[in-house]
Amino acid sequence: xxxxxxxxxxxxxxxxxxIGSVIVLLAALIVLIFQTGENNxxxxxxxxxxxxxxxxxxxxxxxxxxEIKDDKKFNQIFYGHELIVNTAEYLGxxxxxxxxxxxxxxxxxxxxxxxxVFGNNYGSVxxxxxxxxxxxxxxxxxxxxxxxxxxxxLNGKALKKNSPEMQAIVAYITYIGSNVPKGNNGAGSGLKxxxxxxxxxxxxxxxxxxxxxxxxCHQSSGQGIKNGYGDAYVxxxxxxxxxxxxxxxxHRLTNMARFVKYNMPLGADHENPQLSDEEAWDVSAYIISQxxxxxxxxxxxxxxxxKPMDHPFGxxxxxxxxxxxxxxPYTAMAKKK
Length: 337
Hints:
The protein is mainly alpha-helical. It has helices at about 5-45, 70-85, 85-90, 110-115, 125-130, 140-150, 165-175, 205-215, 215-220, 255-265, 275-290, 320-325, 330-335; strands spanning about 130-135, 140, 225, 235.
């Protein structure tokens, strides 16, 4: 072999050794990452969806599921978490436990498994229930409140009070909010207040805002986008037969506007809203003006004078029209409340 060829062979062997070493190093790194992921997976699995350690301390933060030491208690609470996050998988039209709801997940309205600050969260639910609710004119316990959501927001049927699913949901909501003293409101619970407009909210203007800032996820048709299996929604429908019905809390304009202002479009929060106040009111007016399932509720608001000012259906105890109750302006009504 010539000297030139010998030098070339040596060079090739050197390059081969270097490449082989790099491959071995990468393989070792991949194994290390995999093993680290395995070692941490149990702790990660125990945490509620999207609970951040960076949430400001002034706001309520849910207790972590990873802190539950009793296996039986953990299993029940974790099942409750699963039912909130993946309701459709268990109880939707193709549900593997029962088929009693419209395909939405509870966390479509109660964001991040009911833990997001001002994301209609569950922070104060356990601390305030049982409580008197003017809508029913009676004292309601937590299962009754949960079934209101199943019958209204999920446009479905009530769960049996003693069912494993109801008991699990109650256990989950009770556990994550058990750090709020009884009778108190946790800071950042529910929905953040939004200044009232001095005019009626405008659905026509809201449609333009919707097309620009909402339709990419919820579609121009308002029907949302399903996952690849077709059994749950990645982005939920906002109207139509698979949306919440007209007896749900989000069918009230002030609720929808507060929810939208501080949570939508995707990525917005109460510290970084992406819509102006007027945009939130108008786009919400457009959403609630669309057709959706109807639910007869003849026993709602037995004391008509206790109806919220934005309840969209009469009768009313004041002199304002149904149109004004639905879209505002609410400033004069608020002064009478």
